[in-house]
Amino acid sequence: MSIDRRSGCPINLSLEVFGDRWSLIILRDMIFGGKRHFRDLLNGSLERIASNILADRLKRLMELGMLTRADDPTHKQKAIYSLTEMAITLVPILAYLGAWGRVWLPVSEELSIRAELLEKGGPPMWEKFMDELRHEHLGTPSDTPPDATVRASLQAGYEAVVARKAPGAGCDPDA
Amino acid sequence: MSIDRRSGCPINLSLEVFGDRWSLIILRDMIFGGKRHFRDLLNGSLERIASNILADRLKRLMELGMLTRADDPTHKQKAIYSLTEMAITLVPILAYLGAWGRVWLPVSEELSIRAELLEKGGPPMWEKFMDELRHEHLGTPSDTPPDATVRASLQAGYEAVVARKAPGAGCDPDA
DNA sequence: ACAACTGATTGCATTTTGCAATCAGTTGCA
DNA sequence: TGCAACTGATTGCAAAATGCAATCAGTTGT
């Protein structure tokens, strides 16, 4: 399951990295959902990835240099997956992809609010988000307080839509 | 082979449109290569798509609203495929994808020069390119002379690299 | 001691993919 | 008229990917 190298075209090579139905979904959940453990990714995504496919893609993304794996000090069997700089720089692509999908595809309102906020925020917001991800996954220093992160503001926007659509119902499957 | 709708997430829905190894390759060849016929797409791409897969993807992209098909007046069996606005607005995504691949993947110099020029040109160049595609595929008016198109300048850049790498050898498989 | 949870792995049926060969109709040329 | 080349596909088939359920060994909390 390694890279084919059908040609040296940048678009082709990019497709060989995440030209499948699951790799970008996993990266999305790590980037926007803050998921870092196998179980979180397995049970957290709306698209219900199978455990063998998740294991395969995590392995593949590590081989490609998009993820790294480390032991979790709180649990001897637990592994923490981290994004590499290579994966973090996908943020603008995900932002554009979300913006495009929001225009042309039958997206649901509550799931597209994040894409809308990210599009409205533009490149400055993407840069801020990438810096937060670098802090979170690569350990680089950051001066953003935990309650003022881009991810928190995206999540707040999501919850506002959910609350408006179902007032009083306190259920949040994505929390 | 229609859309799954695993979830209403914009990124997921986008992946269901071109989360495979061939759909974006076909769109790339139509957008950057100017290919509009089955045979051009079949023989023109470096990645050697099989004819049944090409037929399947063309059909699928039409069902999804990314392409339209029309009869070619010069040949009763010939079909001309056109990009829709939905497909034309992928240009920024392809630009970002090419830029990302150029940084992180083992691209070849002659095939990545187009991505580099497109990245350097930025959003203004993308807009100009999209206008040219609208003129070419949707018949909208345009005042750009045929020799000053974005595609022509990308092609010129490509040929300059090829000429520099193999001076005197007049072969150009992409012409 | 024991149930729940950790990151996986295995087996298996179904689906998708990719390659080679082939198709019928159209065109250009001798 | 005859025939080769070209048009957009389609078919058969082997290989690969997918998705589901069951299972695994080790760890943790009670």
Report on this model:
Two copies of one chain form a homodimer. With 175 residues, chain A is mainly α. The first copy, chain A, has two domains: 10-84, Arc Repressor Mutant, subunit A, CATH 1.10.10; 89-165, no CATH class. Chain A is 58% helix and 6% strand. Chain A is built from eight helices and two strands; from the N terminus they run H-H-H-H-E-E-H-H-H-H. Chain A has helices spanning 10-18, 23-31, 38-44, 51-63, 85-88, 91-104, 109-138, 150-165, and strands at 67-71, 79-83. Chain A has a two-stranded antiparallel sheet. In chain A, helix 6 (91-104) runs antiparallel to helix 7 and helix 7 packs antiparallel against helix 8. The first copy, chain A, is globular and about 45 Å long. The A-B interface holds A 5-17, 19-21, 24-25, 28, 46-48, 65, 86, 89-90, 92-94, 96-108, 111-112, 115 and B 5-17, 19-21, 24-25, 28, 46-48, 65, 86, 89-90, 92-94, 96-108, 111-112, 115. Chain B binds a DNA duplex (30 and 30 nucleotides) through residues 1, 20-22, 37-39, 42, 49-56, 58, 72, 75-79. Chains A, B: One of its GO terms (molecular function) is DNA binding. Chains A, B: InterPro entries: HTH_HxlR (IPR002577), WH-like_DNA-bd_sf (IPR036388), WH_DNA-bd_sf (IPR036390).
Secondary-structure blueprint:
The structure is a homodimer of 175-residue chains.
Chain A: H1 10-18, H2 23-31, H3 38-44, H4 51-63, E1 67-71, E2 79-83, H5 85-88, H6 91-104, H7 109-138, H8 150-165
Antiparallel strand pairs in A: 1-2
Helix pairs in contact in A: 6-7, 7-8
Chain B binds a DNA duplex (30 and 30 nucleotides) through residues 1, 20-22, 37-39, 42, 49-56, 58, 72, 75-79.
